[in-house]
Structures
1.
Amino acid sequence: MLNVCLIGAGGVGTIAAYVLEKSQRCRVTAVLRSNYTVVRDHGFDIDSVDHGQIRGWKPHRVIPFLSSAPTDQPYDFIVITTKSIPDLVAALIPDLKPLITPGKTSLVLIQNGLDIEHSFASAFPEIPVLSGLSMIGSRTTSPRAVFHEDPDQLRIGPYYHHVDDPLPRSTQLEAARTFVEVYNAGLSDARTIQKSGAECVLAEDIVAARWRKLLWNGSYNTICAVLRMSVGEVLSSPGRKTLLEPAMREMAAIGTAAGYGETVTEDVVQFLLKDTPDTSPFRPSMLVHLEKGQPLELEVILGAPLRVARAKGVKTPVLDQIYELLKVVQWHLLRQQS
């Protein structure tokens, strides 16, 4: 039985914890914060396109702080599904150290953005760091309720930060394969019974996969937040031509300059622009966080690729303006919190 610590039991993390335990190969210790007491007492209520209605479900163990995670048995995987915000990452790393056993533990980062792995790889060079991209429509609707409307599609790949002894590439790849196998075991009912399309896939090049997702996140996610509109509303508006399409093509130009042109082709751009109907009520994560008064994943979704653009000499007038607007929004959110 694999021992898993999961940090960030929101919309994505709660589904991940459920899938891992459903595999019958994992015991999950979930770190909760503000909702610890209500989940401890009543569990989660989940309405899921993949798994149906689940009432009062609890992971193997819930704890209020990472510092209270038991260390009597080493962890095989520490799964982090929190928002990727630089200050939060810096604060998290010291608390992870007591939970990591070299030769046993792997970190799994299921988070948005570009270059999210570097801080963890620098802090823990002796363990595999697995990078994950989740394409899932899942959100919390109350402190103990999760609404999951789009199939769970997860890409996992090793972040090759160390290729020599004692951490060869084969060790890092094997850790990723194990996690993918276990996660798919938890999705087996979703695929065979619900036929939802849920799957966990081993990504050969996770950085390339991140650039592809940035086409969507850097355009839809950010523009919906600036305009406070759903995906369908943006697609139906004049902003489709003046903001959305130019922003996506600017992101494609950055990805191409960075060496990932085969991943961010015009065909991919056209698919992402046309795949979603203009009636879609979907509200991306950045908009949801804004409406809840929570900090935005601005730097990893937009700041990091724009720094690549500056280094490569790529002009990005639309993305630059979106970034500056969201920096002001972020300033306001943080000011309200403090």
2.
Amino acid sequence: MVVTMSAQVSQPVLIVPGVLFWDSLYQGMRLALSERVPLERIEIAPVSLGDWIGFPPSPERSTNRVMKVIDRSLKRMAERFPGEKVTIVAHSGGGTVAMVYLLEKPFQGDCYHRGEQVSRLITLGTPFRTHEQYAKLKTDFIDRHLTPGFFRRCRVVSVVSDKYRGSPAGSLTEKMCHLFYRSTWGDGNASGDGIVPAESCRLEGAKNVIIPDAEHLPTPHTRWYGTNEGVRQWAGWLDSDGPEEHPPALK
């Protein structure tokens, strides 16, 4: 379903890159969102590949490093837009990092307190249930600390595409999806965005939304969440009341 993007919203937006992705990959998403939000009110958290990997490699600390970048970005936005609430748009594993940050509980020794500055978190292809080792550090933490009260101060919209079905006996694409979905979810016979199965993105208490035609990876010549076509399918959730035509919720 395509959401009309004729009206603009004024709330500033902070884009958070996904795991192993960096800020420059999201310039296209920033431009696509500028159909709805003035470009000067959209920032990309300056996350680098080094933030995810660490030197020497320490992926178990990646969440802490990226939370630090998010905090600096929100501080800068508070200076630029004093008193205004911010919407965070986070891709893939960046969504769980943002959630850990917003919970304002100590995570591996780090805790931040800018949650009141953020009124909405939109996640794109973010698995909140996973078997992957480093991702589970975040999802287990979220499971322990997320309460119904959190959603009263911060609306969460979990968006995922179900474009691709995984099958061990299907096409090459279906076989690859089966492998990715199985590594995340344990069951490869699922539908998702080519990397993440849709069902793993379900978050109790959030607005869970499926869009029909987006891919996970921000690579050239794909219709991923950050292209014009991808953004039009979920950008209506930037509004406080959701898009003019609501995409179907996960069943």
3.
Amino acid sequence: MIRVENLHKHFGGFHAVDGATLEIEKGSITGLIGPNGAGKTTLFNVIAGVLPPTSGQVLMEGEDITGLAPHALFSKGLLRTFQVAHEFHSMTVRENLMMVPPGQSGENLWSAWFHGARVREEEARIRARANEVLEFLTIDHIADEKAGQISGGQKKLLELGRTMMTDAKIVFLDEVGAGVNRTLLNTIADAILRLNKEQGYTFVVIEHDMDFIGRICDPVICMAEGKVLAEGTLDEIKANEQVIEAYLGTGLKNKVLKEEGHV
């Protein structure tokens, strides 16, 4: 679905992404792991149009989307969330969801004045869809709370819900588990798995929580120093000597050996 070919992103002399090549299969939940500074978030930003690449190419379903703006990619079904949730603080959780669908009639002053019935009908449909999303994510009990007042984990669920308010094909989730308690993290994992299985969403997930990655992701891609270091199942990644030395470190290496009964 997404193919990245020899992608580079330089900031002066620093090569944040340094010749990365990878492929995201349609219908997969792909994990992207690596140490801080490996280039994961920069790679997301380039694919999602937040940053222009220095060189290289990004293809989506065979179409060259390199350097397209985020709104153009949004219309193609490519969405991206951020490490820090970007909610509208003073609006309710439901209103945050209702803001998402583009081209709403009520945004046009002429329609608001002279086609009120159509605007109200459209708003009712969007509200109904927002309520369905809230129920799906099990956060309908906070629908009328201000988004700025809910917990960090609930904000991550809200961001996931916003992707459900449009025709998403592929969603890039950046550290969805950061600052989230285990109960809500399990809720997020359940929602991702259901969206993948029931609605055909493709996901790419940056995450440091290996239990979370192991539960939902296959394959897993490991980056280091701007390059793709390895790809495979999480077990294969853990057993990869290059990954162990470059990223996971001797601590995890010893843990893996202990689990296998070698130490």
4.
Amino acid sequence: MEEPLTSNVRPATDSVLTIRIVKSFPYRNIKNYIMNSVDLKHTTAKKLLDDIRAIINTTGGLRPYRNVEYDTVKIYTKAHGTKSMNLAINFENDEEWVLVCENSAMKIEGNKSLWDLGVRNETELSLFNWEAYEDFKKNPEELW
């Protein structure tokens, strides 16, 4: 008898998401924040972006991450899926996996629910600045 995957046991109205807050791509300044009890069917990508910004501005442990203008949320990896070789960000699937982007160069409204965008329980999402991402994508050199 095979047990179900833990990512499939929780309902879509009570999911767990890992938010990877990316302050700097070259220096890999990344902080993971776990969001519990996320309703994937009723939470839009825009609302998630606003909620994460509010969490960053009110959580003491995230104080060093407040000086970045976060405007984009992108899927880093889906539960039980393959991960990117790049530890900072997933360069693939920009068209499908960018959930919301407020940058004028890549404007994506984010009005669809997370469920409709393909986000499931235990998905890892990256929060970052689009311009910094574009610069790093052109020259993905890691610094120390």
